[in-house]
Amino acid sequence: MDAFDFNWDKANIEHIRHHGVAPNEVLQVFANDAIDLRYEVVNGEERWTSVGHTDALRILVVVWTMRGESVRTVTAFEAGKRLASEYVMQKYVMQRG
Q1: For residue 81, how far is the Cα from the chain centroid?
Q2: CA distances from 48 to 43, 62, 80, 96 (A)
Q3: Cα separation, 4 vs 63, whole angstroms
Q4: What is the pLDDT of residues 44-87, one digit of tens each?
Q5: Average pLDDT of 32-55?
Q6: How large is the average pLDDT for residues 27-41?
Q7: Could you give the strand order of the β-sheet that contains 59-67, starting from the edge strand earlier in sequence?
Q8: 11/41 Cα distance (integer angstroms)
Q9: How far apart are CA 78 and CA 43, in angstroms?
């Protein structure tokens, strides 16, 4: 994903912190080429669900939307074991070309 501005406020920072995720980890997921899993429209808002890794190799799921030119994180949480394993395998295959 190209570089975007991120839309943070107290509400979404607190929400992801409740799941044990920090804003800088979300930024890292995007910087490390997250893989989009799903697109849906919720209450008229377009939302994407992506999976990616942090610089510490923590695999996170991030649900996000666009607010103008900014990415707004809806929620973020650690990926389950099955999804994390699938992500690692897909990244490995992508790197090997």
Answers
A1: 16
A2: 14, 8, 18, 26
A3: 15
A4: 999 999 999 999 999 999 999 999 999 999 999 999 999 999 99
A5: 96
A6: 96
A7: 5-7, 70-78, 59-67, 45-53, 35-42
A8: 21
A9: 25
For residues 35 and 49, what is the distance between their CA atoms, to the nearest angstrom?
9
Per the CB < 8 A criterion, the answer to whether 74 and 61 are in contact is no
Instruction: List the structure tokens of 16.
Output: 């992801």
Average pLDDT, the chain: 93
pTM: 0.91
State the Cα–Cα distance between residues 74 and 48, nearest whole angstrom: 10
Which residue carries 């099955």 as its tokens? Answer: 82
Q: Are 52 and 62 in contact (CB under 8 A)?
A: yes
- Contact call for residues 74 and 13 (beta carbons, < 8 A): no
What is the rounded average pLDDT of the residues 16-39? 96
**H-type alpha helices, 1-97:** 10-18, 23-31, 81-96
